Structures are given as C-alpha cells and as structure tokens.
Amino acid sequence: MNILVLNAGSSSQKISFFKIGAGLPEVPQKPDWEAKLDVKWQEVESEKWIEMLKERLSGLAGGPEKLINSLSEISVVGHRIVHGGTKYLASTKINAQVKADIENLEQLAPLHNKINLTGINAMEQLLSEKVEQVAVFDTAFHRTLPLYASLYPVPYQWYEDLGIHKFGFHGINHQYCAKRAAQMLAKPLESLSMIVCHLGSGCSLSAVENGKSVDTTMGFTPLEGLMMSTRSGTIDPGLLIYLLRNSGMSAEKLDDVLNHDSGLKGISGLSSDLAIVINEMKKGNQRAKLAFDMYVYRICRYVAEMRAALKRLDCLVFTAGVGENAPLVRQSVCGSLNWLGVQIDSALNESTRLDGNIGKRGSSVPVLVISAREDWAIASDCWQILSQSPN
Predict the structure, then answer these.
(1) What residue ranges do the domains of the chain occupy?
(2) What is the enclosing helix (H) or strand (E) of 356?
(3) Strands 2-8 and 76-81
(4) Which of 305, 314, 348, 351 would you label with 152, given CA atoms 20 to 30 Å apart?
(5) Is the overall model pTM greater than 0.90, yes or no?
C-alpha cells in the first residue's frame, strides 16, 4: 500500500511517503521518502501553496528519488487534522460531510484546520477526487477524558448548549508515544500508567492509564496549559477581562498576543527558540533565565497535576522537539520530581539516542525519550482503515 501523509503546521508542511506491505510492522518504520514546505500558508494564496506542494511531490514520481511511476499509484492520503470536535472519536475516511465539519471547526483551531482542509482539497486536485483520503484527528485520543476532568467549572448550560469543554490536542503523538513506551518496556499497554510530555513549539502533557487519555493540559483550544514558545498557556481569565475593559485592546489583538507574542518569546524578549533562550541564559541574560525557569516550573507543576489523575506512575515520557533535544530541560524537570520516584542518569540524559531510557539504574520510574512519529501513526491508521474496507 502506497501511503502519503500530510502533516500541516502553522509554518510548515511535512510530507511523508510509506510503502507498507500485507502486514503492518509492529516497530515503526522510517518514511521511504519525505519532504517539507517551509512556508507560512497565511502569507500565500491557496493556489500558490498547491503549486508548491505539487512541485515537492514531483520528486516522489520522478528524478533520483523516484519511488513510484506516477502520483496515481498513491493508495491513500492521510491528513493530521488538529480539531475534530465532539463528533470524531477515531480516524475516518474523508467525504463531503467530514470536510464540512473540519471547516466548521476552524474557529476553534484557526492556525491549523484551514490549512488541513486546503491540503485535502489540494490532493483532490492533484490526484483526483477518487483517491481515498483519511482524517486523523489530534483531539480523538482525548475523547476518553472523564467528564469531571473535561468540564470547566462554569454554568453547565455552556457545555450543553455550546459544547464548551476540554478537547485536548497533540493526541496523535500522545497515543503513539504511549504505545511505543509499552513496546520499549515490554509490557502490555493496558497495564501501564504514564505521563507523556509533548514539548515542542506547542506543549502539552497527558495522563495515560490503561492506554487511554484520562487528562491533558491543553483544553478547549491549544492555548491552555503549559507555557509554550509563543503561547501563554493558562493565565487568570480575570486578567483577560481586565485587559479588554481597560487597555483598549480588541479581542482580535488579545488573541494574537496570547498566541504569537507570549510564552518564551514574550518573557525573554529574545526569541521563541528555546535553544537561543538557553544560550543567552548561559551568558547571564536574566530575562532569558526567567523565561527558562518559568518554562520548567510550569512543566513540573502540570506533571504533578497529571499524576493526580493516575493510580500510579509507571513511566515518564519526553517527546517532540524540545523533549527529544534539550537535555537541560529534562534534567531540570526531573530534578524536581524525585518525590515521584523519578531519577535520571546524567550521562544517559546527555548522550541518549531517541527511543531510549535515561532513568537511573534502580529508579522506580523509567524516563523514556521517544521520537515523535505522527507520520507513522497516521500511516498506520490509513493502512488499518483501508485494509478493513470491503472495497
């Protein structure tokens, strides 16, 4: 089966291609081909964006990287869809109704759902409307949250009439990492309780018990929870009311500031890139140090919150760009979690390869560093859906 995966973010489009045979491998396989579009889609017309995508895909069916004779040989296209609302509990084949639902949810994930839909339409243009496409939802994994964890303490009618509750995000990778952790520990997923720390440009934690998400830090939107690269994370809602009443700031401006000018960028005044913040901190920049200390503190604080949702803690997982590549963050976080039984080996923390255990020998809680593999998770869902299809 020839599977193309489109994983769109607010500033890039990752493209992966997998050839999967009659059986789905248990161990994740690397893409047979991959490419990336580094472009902020908001700054280009959709027609231009589609043309750029077409040019990138030409390498798949031609030139030295050629893997297929033509794009018509693609069996299915899988899309990471950030917001699936309350309706989509699992990955699903895309049809007109699914497209309409994705579009209707755009206001809840304005940075992502629109480009997700553009990618679906682009594949219809480039490959034909007959090609099978599958939507894999970032919110689906968190649909198992119990109501007491997903509801906000606001009038219940807001939930009944407006659907206001915690959706959670990064679910594709949280679910993948939970499964991968079980493989690495050689234990059934259904027997484990773990906390997964997805630390990238966007950040979220999840509490996973018996293979199901029981709590997570992102909420109704991806703005809730941890301090992130440019997003504020959770702040006092009264502060927002105060600003709207007294600063002359519009709702649109406030939304922009909280999403694009806050977090590491807002506190450091330097950059949204944690590596730059750390480098400046080591040079003595106090704003950079403050940003780093706040970032780590909030991770530790929310790890404690996730622990409260679990009966026990069998492992702690770090994943995504920061989680995989910032030993100082892992060291700083784990240094404050001894009360959970978390202890790491400093040498392993500095040198470990991805999908490794950096826990100290004899530590009661393994600490795993797992490569984020949303591409493989999406490809796997596509394979399973098409393999089970009667057609």
Answers:
(1) 2-137, 184-370
(2) strand 356-357
(3) parallel
(4) 314
(5) yes
CATH of domain 184-370: 3.30.420.40
pLDDT in tens, 355-376: 999 999 988 999 999 999 999 9
Average pLDDT over residues 282-310: 98
| Cα 27–chain centre separation | 20
Residues 187, 193 contacting (CB under 8 angstroms): no
What is the domain class of 2-137 according to CATH? alpha beta
Tens of pLDDT, residue by residue over 18-55, are 999 888 888 889 999 988 887 666 666 777 777 888 88
Q: Are 351 and 358 in contact (CB under 8 A)?
A: no
Torsion angle defined by CA atoms of residues 239, 240, 243 and 246, in that order, rounded to the nearest 10 degrees: -80
- The tokens 């939802």 sit on which residue? 137
Residue 373 corresponds to which tokens in the numbers above?
């593999």
Distance in angstroms (rounded) separating the CA atoms of residues 264 and 229:
5
Strands (E), 13-150: 13-19, 33-37, 76-81, 92-93, 132-137
Residues 210-239 have pLDDT tens digits of 999 999 999 998 899 999 999 999 999 999
At position 299, the amino acid (one-letter code) is: I
4 phi/psi in degrees, rounded to 5: -105, 135
Would you say residue 151 has pLDDT above 60?
yes
Report how far residue 108's alpha carbon sits from residue 106's, in angstroms, rounded to the nearest whole number. Answer: 5
Domains 2-137 and 184-370 share a fold: yes
Residue 243 φ then ψ, to 5°: -65, -40
Report the first-to-last Cα separation within the chain, whole angstroms.
14
What lies within 8 Å, CB to CB, of 329 at 6+ separation is: 199, 274, 295, 296, 299, 322, 323
Given 32, 38, 101, 138, the catalytic residue: 138
Active site residue 161: no
